[in-house]
Amino acid sequence: xxxxxxxxxxxxxxxxxxxxxxxxxxxxxxxxxxxxxxxxxxxxxxxxxxxxxxxxxxxxxxxxxxxxxxxxxxxxxxxxxxxx
Length: 84
Description:
Number of strands: 5
Radius of gyration: 13 Å
Order of helices and strands: EEEEHEH
Shape: globular
Distance between the termini: 11 Å
Strand content: 15-25%
Mean pLDDT: 88
Structural class: alpha+beta
Number of domains: 1
Number of helices: 2
């Protein structure tokens, strides 16, 4: 199953940096279908926004490279480890 990587804007007030300032949050989810069209991306953003109780404008779907650049190795389980 593919992963979808996304960033939650600091405006959502979900993450805080070491200085107590709001910061973006990077996350991923495993889904059972690809998100390969603009319509599917928009539907996913709406679903995540509803689940997270935030505005969909705060959610940006990103690529794996951007996700990995912004997540410390020890904070993230490898993709293989999430295949449970």
